[in-house]
Amino acid sequence: MPVKSGDLGLVKRATGHGDPLKLVPETLRLHDREEVRNFLPDILGRALARVWIDTPFSEHFSRNPKDCLEAAGVFLPDNVSIEFSKGAQDRPKIIVFEQQPGSKFKLRVFYLQLVMMAGK
């Protein structure tokens, strides 16, 4: 189908969906492990994808994931921590932990790792 020069109607961004790079449409406060398990995987999936395309975001997220999420409007319980790792040959990986008050041990709640697949 021929397209006239300057006519980008076919590739226009859909309106009403907000910024595609935003992690959440509005401020989100998670209060417990159940909410973290229900909502955080999707949010961190978007963060993991954004790490690949947004260098300043990637640098901020790799230094302090929880602070980066707060800057994006996602607030986690105090006993939840996030570790981000990416070695030279490894795919980025995010691990979410919960630590009970007074305990030295962290319980892994879940992890995400970017997996690339090709098909033919």
Q: Averaging pLDDT over every residue, what do you get?
A: 82
> How many E-type strands?
5
Oligomer: single chain
Enumerate how many helices there are, as a single number. 3
The Cα radius of gyration reads 18 Å
Strand order of the largest sheet: 3-4-5
Share of β-strand residues: 15-25%
Kindly state the percentage of residues in helix: 25-40%
Major sheet characteristics: 3 strands, antiparallel
Structural class by SSE content: alpha+beta
Order of helices and strands: EHHHEEEE
Overall geometry comes to: globular
- Terminal-residue CA separation: 26 Å
Poorly predicted residue ranges: 1-16
Structure report:
With 120 residues, the protein is α+β, with helices and mostly antiparallel strands. Helix content is 31%, strand content 19%. It has three helices and five strands; from the N terminus they run E-H-H-H-E-E-E-E. The protein has a three-stranded antiparallel beta sheet with strand order 3-4-5. Strands 1-2 form a two-stranded parallel sheet. A hairpin with a 7-residue loop joins strand 3 and strand 4 (93-98). The radius of gyration is 18 Å and the shape is globular. Residues 1-16 have low confidence and may be disordered.
